[in-house]
Design a protein that fits this description.
The strands form three sheets. The protein has a six-stranded mixed sheet with strand order 5-4-3-2-1-14. The chain has a six-stranded mixed sheet with strand order 6-7-8-9-12-13, with helices on one face. Strands 10-11 form a two-stranded antiparallel sheet. It has one domain: Nitrilase/N-carbamoyl-D-aminoacid amidohydrolase. A hairpin with a 2-residue loop joins strand 10 and strand 11. With about 280 residues, it is α/β, with parallel strands linked by helices. It is globular, with a radius of gyration of 18 Å. It comes from Saccharomonospora glauca K62. Keywords: Hydrolase. This is Putative amidohydrolase.
């Protein structure tokens, strides 16, 4: 399977322009025989939604979105989804003009400069999904920082985790380095869930924030097998072997003994003690 990492710099609020750029990039990836093109989080709308006066959310069945996947490769694209009453930070998996899966971001950060809960509602489901190439799952940016979500996706059969992101460069004078954290997190995720991980981050400057890029692919052993440059737009294409997931999971069966009953009992106890229902 050939995957293309579309590390882009979108324009805030310019949906039409971002759609045109995405279509151009997809055609470029198709010329390189890509099977799947992955774009960053909110790649059609931009991130600083609070600075926009207009509602730029899109319906998942917007025909312009379906068109993106009619050039050959499947497409994962990020947008602000119009969910009628609610809006969602969503990533759509499109194939042959059809919506295969819609992942709505589950954990919306609301600290430092991030104010996602002001503009979107969290999703309510995590599902792996079948494609023509294999069984995948999508985790949007901060979703991947929640340890249980990659595990749940792997338990649901995901062989490849797709992680679109809007990760900014160092924000404070402290020791927190997002690029370093992402490296360690993605390595741990690939090794523990024994699956491929495709991380696609954006680049560019928006609302005083600079996004660093550094998109990458990790194999089921946790090794980085492809890396995009930092700070600049790029299209990185790599071949991956999904059968390596079964091989790795057979070598060391970390996921086989899930003990779902134990987890259910302990989660129910914690929910009861915390009052979180």
């Amino acid at each position: 399977m050939r995957v293309a990492l579309a590390q882009t710099d979108c324009r805030l609020g310019d949906v039409e322009g971002n759609l045109a750029d995405a279509e151009r990039i997809i055609k470029d990836a198709a010329a390189q025989n890509a099977d799947l093109v992955v774009f960053p989080e909110l790649s059609l709308t931009g991130y600083a939604l609070g600075q926009l006066a207009d509602d730029i959310s899109l319906w998942p069945d917007d025909p312009r979105l379906a068109t993106l996947s009619k050039h050959g490769p499947d497409v994962v694209i990020g947008l602000l989804e119009d969910g009628r009453i609610r809006r969602h930070n969503s990533a759509l998996y499109l194939s042959g003009g059809t919506l295969v899966h819609n992942h709505r971001k589950l954990y919306l950060p609301n600290y430092l400069i991030w104010e996602e809960r002001k503009h979107a509602n969290p999703g309510q489901h995590l599902r792996a999904y079948d494609t023509a190439h294999g069984r995948f799952a999508t985790l949007i940016c901060n979703d991947a920082w929640q340890p249980m979500l990659p595990w749940l996706a792997a338990q649901d059969g995901a062989e490849l985790l797709i992680v679109p992101a809007n990760s900014a460069a160092k924000l404070t004078g402290g020791s927190f380095d997002p690029a370093e954290y992402w490296h360690d997190l993605l390595t741990f995720t690939a090794r523990m869930q024994q699956c491929w991980v495709v991380f696609v981050n954006r680049v560019g400057d928006e609302a005083g924030v600079r996004f660093w890029g550094g998109s990458r692919v990790l194999d089921p052993w946790g090794s980085v097998v492809a890396t995009a440059p930092t700070w600049e737009e790029s299209l990185t294409v790599i071949d991956i072997d999904l059968t390596a997931v079964r091989r790795r999971r057979r070598e060391i069966p970390l996921l086989a003994d899930a003990r779902m009953g134990l987890l259910r009992r302990e989660l129910e106890r914690l929910m009861l003690e915390s009052g979180d229902d």
